[in-house]
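Cast an eye over my tokenised protein here and flag anything odd:

===
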Amino acid sequence: MPLSRVTDVVAGLVPTDPLRRKLIAIRLAESIGKGVFLSGSVVYFTLRVGLDARQVGLGLSAAGLSAFLSSVLFGVIADRVGARRLLVILFATLAVGFGFYSLVDSATAFFALVVTVGFLEYGTGPTNGALIGNLVPAEERVKLKAMMRSVFNIGFSIGIGVAAVAALSQRLLVLIPLTTAALMAGAALLVTRLPDVPPRPAPVGFKRFAAVRDPRFLAVIGVSTILASHVSIILVTMPLWALNRTDLPHFLIPLLLIINTAFVILFQVRASRGADTVHGAGRLARRSGYWLAGGCAVLAVTALDDNVVLASVAIVAAVLILSVAEVMQAASGWGLAFGLAPEHAQGEYLGAFDLHVITQNIIGPAALSGLVIAFGFWGWLGIAVAGLVASALIIPAANRSAVTLVRETASASTT
């Protein structure tokens, strides 16, 4: 891609509207902080705190499991007290929490703090989504989310660089949690500069936690979990496959994530076109499943031949194909989440919809990696078939959920 095109894409991520610029700035501060901490946390807890690999892994897994509760819970709270107010509280509390990491000196303190911080951190997603739902017109939400995701990848990459510098010296390691704490405090300050929109009152008869009690909405989440398999494949399954079942040079494996990150930055906004309605988002989700299946089919080829050139070409091609699936599925997910959420319950429904990514992050790496390592070619084909089945199911599932939403909203209003 020409350099001028790259420059245009990056420049396009800076909106001319002051409100959207503030939202983008908040996302950038948050993403740099997460990049610093997530990329440097294992080094920090191992070398400075003195924990072993098992303790660090167990703590981070426990923090991830807390997301099943916090994502929906904080979404409901955002609908009740106001998304802006809650987001300020969450970012401010996270700043304190990350700051406390610099004082941790035992496994017990680590476990208590990592679960608490993780619980709060997973609440920022639906709260931020509800804030966007309050401040931005419906037809512009998906595009803004796409811009914010590209910005997140840029910020996360910057954060990785900061963490790498901090890891150069034992004395500098403390900058990992402290830098993250400062950035979270900065994000909280930026949120206070946004307009304060009061929460929308719920219609008479509307029940809280309706999102997780609606089987048709849960069906959309379940199908989306399969379509989001690209998350686990790109981050875990494909690197493990390349290391254990191919002769791909090891130095190429980290480059795969760089290719994926650059692709998302450049093409996420373009991929979001047409996903601002339930119908358009459903069609985009269906196409993402086709690309997911295609990427897995290409990876299956590497199980049939040990040629290193073939494996290298196939894996790089698979990264690009799966990256297409990723940007399509992400955009379709925002369109479905916003489109299927009642205006007065944006936080709750967005928090529930986030469960498809949370589930994939927790279950996907072990399940998909175990499948392909054990069954090789047929394992990859099995994931491809699952992607095609999910593609066939997503539009009918979304349409049924949309009908239920209209019917229940009308019923609640009438009551």
Notes: Residues 16-191 form a domain with the Growth Hormone; Chain: A; fold (CATH 1.20.1250.20).
